[in-house]
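Notebook, student rotation project (T.W.).
Task set for the rotation: take a protein with a known small-molecule partner, predict the structure of the complex, and write up what can be learned from the model alone. Partner molecule chosen: flavin-adenine dinucleotide. Sequence and SMILES entered below by T.W., checked by me.
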Amino acid sequence: MRRVLVKGAGVAGLTVAHELAARGASVTVAEIRSQIGGNASWLAGGMLAPWCERESAEETVVSLGRISTDWWERVLPGLVTTAGTLVIAHVRDAFELARFAARTRNHESVDDEAIAALEPDLAGRFRKGLFFAGEAHLDPRRVLEALADKLRAMGVVFLFEVDEVDLSGFDQVIDCTGIARADDDLRGVRGEMLILHTREVSLTRPVRLLHPRHPIYVVPRADHHFMVGATMIESDHDGPITSRSLMELLNAAYALHPAFGEAEIVETGVGVRPAYPDNLPRVKRRKDGAITINGLYRHGFLLSPAMAEQAAGLLFNSSADLESENEADRQWRSA
Ligand SMILES: Cc1cc2nc3c(=O)[nH]c(=O)nc-3n(C[C@H](O)[C@H](O)[C@H](O)COP(=O)(O)OP(=O)(O)OC[C@H]3O[C@@H](n4cnc5c(N)ncnc54)[C@H](O)[C@@H]3O)c2cc1C
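Predicted structure of the complex:
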C-alpha cells in the first residue's frame, strides 16, 4: 500500500487525498493551520461555472471544469446545487452583456419576465440577462468540512499545526500548499469578499452583475446569507479588506438589490489565489520526486477534481492499483 503525505488541507489537498484514499493509498494530510479553514478555499464563492469563466479564461478551464459538478455530487451527495448562473447588467451597461455573451457559450438570453421567473426578488430591476442553466454552486465551508469528515471515515489521518513532517514514513509527498509554496512561477491574486445577511432578499443561484469597473457576483448561502465577491488584485498581501474594496462591493450589492443596504455585514475576508503566468493549474513532479498541485487561481473548486485525478493517475497506473480503485469510497457509502 502506498503511503502518501499530502501537505495542505485546502481544496487541492483534500480532493487529492480523496482520490488517493479511494484508490487504496494510506494518506496523511498535514496542515500548518490549527484546523480546516481560513485559507483561500475557505474564502471562495463556490461557483462551479465553467462556461461563465470562459469569459476571461482559456478553453482548458471549460474542458477540465466540466467534470467538477458530477465529482462533487458523487463524492459528497446533496451538497451541490445545480440551478445555473444568472448574468445581468443594468441598461446603461448592456454592452457588457453583449461582450460576455460573445465570449461564452451554453447560455440563453433572458428578458425581464424570465429574470423574474428565475429570481422573483429581481423582478422589474433588470431588462436583459444571460442564463447558464448547466452551472452549479456549493458552499465551500460545508464542503471542506464534509470532505474532511469523509476522509477521516476513510482512514485518512490529519495532522494540524505542523510545518515539517518526518518523511521517512512516506513513499510520496504531494504538495498542495497554495500560495505558501515557494515556486518561482507562482504569483498571488488577492480576492476580497463579504458575507451579508438579510431576510429581505432570496436568491436561488449565483447572480453575476456586470459592470465596466466593478463586476460582482452574489452567491446565496444557507439562511439568507450571501457571499459577495470578489476583487482581483495582483498582490499576495493577505491583510484586511481595504475601505475602497468594501465600498465597491457594497455599492455593487446595493445596485443589485437595495435591500442589501440594510443587510448585516457578517464577515469580510481576504484570500490569496495562487496563479501561474497563464492562470492555468498544474500538476508537476519536482526534482525531489514530490508532486505539486497548484495554480488553481480563481478555479479551485471547479478544477481541483480534474487536478486530483491527474495526480492520482501519476501514482496509480497499474491494473492492480485500478482494481482497488474506489474500494474505500464504496466502504464509506455502505457504512
Ligand atoms: C474571494 C475568492 C473567491 C473565489 N471563488 C471561487 C469560486 O467561486 N469557485 C472556484 O472554483 N474557486 C474560487 N476561488 C479560488 C479558490 O478559492 C482557489 O483556487 C483555491 O482555494 C486554491 O486552493 P489551494 O488548496 O491550492 O490553496 P489553499 O486553499 O490556500 O490551501 C493551501 C493550504 O496549505 C496550507 N499550508 C501552507 N503551507 C503549509 C505547510 N508548509 N505545511 C502544511 N500546510 C501548509 C495552508 O494553510 C492552506 O490551508 C476563489 C478565491 C477567492 C480568494
